[in-house]
Amino acid sequence: MERGVFANTGSNGLALDAAGDLLLAAHDVGGISHLDLPGGALTRGTQTRNGMRFNSPNDLSLRGDGNIYFTDPDFQSPSGRIQGDTRVYRIAPPQAGQGPAISVVDDSIDQPNGITLSPDGNTLYVSGGSVLRSYSLDASGVPTPLRTFQQTLQAPDGMAMDCAGNVYAVENQARRVRVFSAEGVLLGTIGPQGFDNQGLTNVAFGGPLRTTLFISGFTEGDQGGLYSVELQVPGLPY
Length: 238
Description:
Elements: E1 11-16, E2 22-26, E3 31-35, E4 42-43, E5 59-62, E6 68-72, E7 87-91, E8 102-106, E9 112-117, E10 123-128, E11 131-137, E12 143-152, E13 156-161, E14 167-171, E15 176-180, E16 186-190, E17 199-206, E18 212-218, E19 224-230
């Protein structure tokens, strides 16, 4: 087993890019950082909007064509809502001779948190406040006005996607993970039993067949746990 430690990345959510390097939702610098793997250099994010850093980028998802989507609550912001509000953003793939084009996906979710994409990259899912929403994306990754479904969640946090297009949405305070179909139908619930009264923070698929769902938790004393559940369907990427 290979292990590595990267100190002081100032990050929360992570995503692997096409080169196998890490993109990091970095609350310390208020942008999307880049970490060369294995053991390479950390390039801290310098993205801005209206001349200011973002509040506290929390989670992100990367589409195959290079579109980056991220949530920007104020949980770890050094000075509150630097951007004036909490929003979901899109960073379009860079064009020759131009900097990153950043646009707003949704400005109506208070404290957006979890974010993930469907297997075909044509639907974006975002959780935050008390909702889980999905958005249709066009061929270039721009969200359309259509929201395909909305569900109510209790203190939503991270999310994951399986290869069948089902959404695994963490409910922090309820200590459970709820599973929804692509159409928003509730398929099942994991927890709250078995999580030792820990609040849940995020989920990710792994294991030899990618059928192991890993679930992270925490308590108010900053003591965390890592749990796993074996499923019959593999997760993305697959």
